[in-house]
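Input/output pair, single chain:
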Amino acid sequence: FAQQRLWFLDRLEPGSPFYNITRALRLHGHLDVRSLGRALGEIVRRHEALRTTFPSSGGFPAQVIAAAGDASLSLVDLGGLGTAGREAVALDLATLWARSPFDLARGPLLRLGLLRLGEQEHLLLAAVHHSVADGWSMGVLVREIGALYAAFVQGEPSPLPELPVQYADFAAWQRSWLQGEVLEEQIAFWRGRLAGAPRVLELPADRPRPPVQTFRGAVQPLVLPPALAQAARGLGRRESATLFMTLLAAWAVLLGRHAGQEDLLVGTPIAGRNRREIEDLVGFFVNTLVLRIELSAGDSGTAPAFLEVLGRVRAGALTAFAHQDLPFERLVEELAPERDLSRSPLFQVLFSLQNAPAGELRLPGLTLAPVETGAAVAKFDLSLYLVETGAEITGGLEHNRDLFDAGTVERLGARFAALLAAAVADPGCPVGDLPLLSPAEVEQLVTGWNDTAEPFPADLCVHERIAAQAARTPEAVALSFGGEPLFYQELVERAGRLARRLVRLGVGPDVPVGLCADRSPALLVGVLGILQAGGAYVPLDPTHPRERLGAILADSGLRVLVTENALLGTLPHHGVPLVLLDGETAGDGRVPLPRVHPENLAYVLFTSGSTGRSKGVAVSHRGVMNFLTTLAARAGFSAGDVVVALTTLSFDIAVTEL
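Output:
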């Protein structure tokens, strides 16, 4: 069944390398190339799957097994190149080797290569199509290469016993057994288990999903330290759950929290080797199970604790394992989900825990090291692969690069570790209360992104900053209106005369003063005069409705209202004393201006009132100075720049145009 599905996928997208399984190993030391070739040839003889091809017959794949022969080991000598060039060419060849497609009809479906880098340095390349092998098979190959090479180097015969069965025997048995009542029972279970489950996990991605699924992959490494791994094992033992179930429960909670879903499907591979006689075979035995995890509230109506989710995962996994014989490909056929070329059917996220050793290749006289070829393929949106390696748990997050950035996936891995640590420390905690952020993210949010302190003149008020500029450049243009300039010295003098008039009327620090004026130089004189008097200006835009102006006049507690003759009819009735900008211009120079401190108010703006009655928001001189200084620095303003003042004074951003 599985081979047939891969054959159909290959027909849909011929020449695709997405189902290549590849390995590259660096061999350092004396290599007996002839013995290595003999070992590989013996493996191909032993395992018929490696000699199998799939020509088309009546629109369906036929299985053809070729006669045994010598394995083709391609040897490329790069020893004549310089060191740097040799390594670069070797890596390019290894990547090309991994990405080159297979011809399922003609074969061979195993490709072996050896790059000679020097007398004591080689690169062994292996690629096999998934239709004839799986991850477990790679472990079988590793063990057999080691045993056969060691024997052949010593001139000894193969130490491996003949295989009792071949993959073709298993395929024939599977088709004869999985039919009738057995098949119907398996299908009925999965139909019931997945009924009503969402077929899409909507994880937030960094980019829009392409209309047709892509497979450009990358892997972010992940390590769960020994203490966390031990705590997870301990929780599982206490709850009669395996480590797989504990880690899957944490993974599901993380996915559900990110996607905002309480019901989700996660795929997991299962070896499919439940009989001793097929454990040492190379072949495509692996199956994929679809596990449904529900994070919704139970009968109590409250969010489930992590322990409850772990119990649900345990029960669901056990029943799924008991019905593992239905091939995933057949399940997809039976459920017939709505066709969506942009994503994989039924699930888009995978979880895998490998707790059995994959096998380490040991060759006498050689030291070996894996080599990354840069040919990562992502069959799903996101896959978490974990391996028990002694006390710790290692692995990686494989992701589709067309959906997720590396940084996003790295943060997701850190969040998984943080959530798991919290869950095993307090398994009774509701899953919605488990921390979602890693310690590094918390530090960044609380401290890093808030560390925005920059130097600014914290001891100056807004009008003092303008007065200092006027002292430096009294003849410089402060503003221009209708082609007429207003110089800094004139601006400050006019504002000073207004300020003294206001002080005589009782204006001082933090006293609210209304300002209603048309856009003209007089408006800026009004702002600066109110600030010099110590007051906080309260803008009243003459273009706003009378009802809004009346509400501000009623709520602001104005001591004085600064306006113009032409606007007196615009304002609603009020009892606030008036000062006209176009009225008396002479000021009493003997009236002292108050000392204003940076903590005193500069202005009070009223909100739009969209959520009810508008409210006044008070802003201090220090806040304005901090904002304006930072804005000027970030925007790169200089003395030669000109800012167009268009914004109504009633809107907070207008202060940037001063």
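DSSP finds 17 helices and 23 strands in the chain. Residues 406-425 form the longest helix (20 residues).
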